[in-house]
Specification:
There is one protein chain. This protein is α+β, with helices and mostly antiparallel strands and 69 residues long. It is 26% helix and 10% strand. It has two helices and two strands. The relative contact order is 0.29.
Amino acid sequence: MLDLRGDPAPVLLADITSSGWDSAVRQADDVRQLISRIEAGTFGFHWEDQVASLRRTSGVRSGHGAAPW
């Protein structure tokens, strides 16, 4: 999903049982990076919790905001 609260919007992965943005895991800094990594064959899902990194690098805070779709 895209977190449109950031600019550029980071690409995140959230489990179907996710409680919200706090449990989403960053996959790429933006769509362009995601597509480049997929086309290069270097993309792999990140499963570990990277929320702290997301907040530090993009200034995105938890809470309600843009819809994930």
